[in-house]
Specification:
- The complex is a heterodimer of chains A (about 230) and B (about 80).
- With about 230 residues, chain A is mostly helical.
- Helix content of chain A is about 65%, strand content about 0%.
- The longest helix of chain A has 26 residues, at about 185-210.
- With about 80 residues, chain B is mostly helical.
- The relative contact order of chain B is 0.12.
- In chain B, α1 (about 15-25) runs parallel beside α3 (about 45-60).
- Chain B is elongated.
- Classes of the chains: A mainly alpha (about 230), B mainly alpha (about 80).
- Chains A and B meet through α2, α3, α6, α7 and α9 of A and α1, α3 and α4 of B.
């Protein structure tokens, strides 16, 4: 199947080219399902929102002016549909409100892992620094760790989950995420930071559970205290 | 809110603040003065360097984690709705 750019796929859709539409559906539906899931109750409702958004795309394609990218335009339609669907389920909120509700100021790392603010020599420095991760050739997603990471992402609050998925799984740029979800750059970064921090922590817990703690941690603590 | 860097512009950043700045750092969103303080800290702090390496590894490792798309049945229903 051929690949298109925005201009050629819009022209093809307007000319009634079903193959071009199928290409576009296959290109975006997975990310659309992720975004819809942030707004609605379950998988079935999210799939329906994706379907309704595509109907909106078909109906609206003649009015697409190219002021935003086609991707941004499609995701704006989707978020409007999903917000309405979420509203019927009493979970109607713009993405920025989901984001605000999740920003509880949670620290990236348990504060107990740092020396106290009134420490004589090194206030706020690591007491228990992160242990080095093993680096299997197959990468971080090898074996059991893969399931641990997938579960950690699935367990994130919806806005954090959506942003980390679009950025790090789907490979979108920060600008694309901000445009599609109508988020400020700062809010996008906070969500990404909280999401990645929690997933990092889950990986650390997993690795700590399978690799007995070495005395490297306490060694580091002593070393810092002596510095 | 992201924790703001200490008022003391010249001194070393404490690690507890550094870990909160690393996403902004990786995104190129830190003001130049804060970024250079951060880099100065990283040069002498193995804990924060390891933490940054982990955040980089994590961010760069997830591309293969792509989940499911809509069901095949729904996909066909959507594709069929074109032109109908």
């Amino acid at each position: 199947m051929r690949a298109y750019d925005d201009e050629s796929v819009v022209a093809a859709l307007r000319a009634g080219d079903g193959d071009a539409f199928a290409w576009l559906v296959d290109r975006h539906s997975r990310a659309m399902l992720r975004v819809a899931t942030a707004y609605v109750r379950d998988r079935a409702a999210a799939e329906e929102a994706v379907q309704e958004a595509w109907i909106g795309v078909i109906r609206g394609i003649d009015r697409f002016e190219g002021r935003a990218s086609l991707q941004t335009w499609i995701f704006r339609i989707l978020t409007n549909v999903a917000k309405r669907a979420g509203g019927r389920e009493a979970r109607s909120t713009p993405f920025s409100a989901l984001a605000a509700a999740e920003d509880t100021g949670e620290p990236a790392v348990d504060p107990d892992r740092f020396l106290p603010a009134d420490h004589e020599l090194h206030p706020g420095h690591w007491a228990v620094p992160p242990a080095r991760w093993p680096t299997p050739e197959e990468g971080l997603l090898a074996g059991e760790a893969r399931a641990v990471i997938a579960t950690a992402i699935a367990d994130l609050p919806p806005a954090q989950r959506t942003v980390i998925a679009l950025r790090d799984i789907e490979g979108w740029s920060a600008e694309e995420v901000c445009a599609a979800l109508e988020l400020s750059g700062g809010n996008q970064r906070i969500l990404l930071h909280r999401g990645r921090s929690r997933v990092r922590s889950a990986i650390e817990d997993y690795l700590g559970a399978v690799t007995p703690a070495t005395d490297g941690d306490t060694g580091e603590m002593e070393r810092i205290s002596e510095r | 809110m992201t924790r703001r860097p200490s008022q003391d512009q010249g001194g070393d950043l404490p690690c507890i603040e550094v870990v909160e700045l690393l996403t902004d750092y990786l995104e190129g969103a830190l003001p130049a003065a804060v970024a250079s303080r951060l880099e100065r800290h990283l040069r002498t702090c193995p804990g924060c360097s390891e933490y940054l390496a982990q955040m980089r590894t994590l961010a760069g490792s997830l591309r293969d984690l792509a989940g499911e798309s809509v069901s095949a049945e729904m996909r066909d229903r959507i594709v069929r709705s074109f032109g109908s």
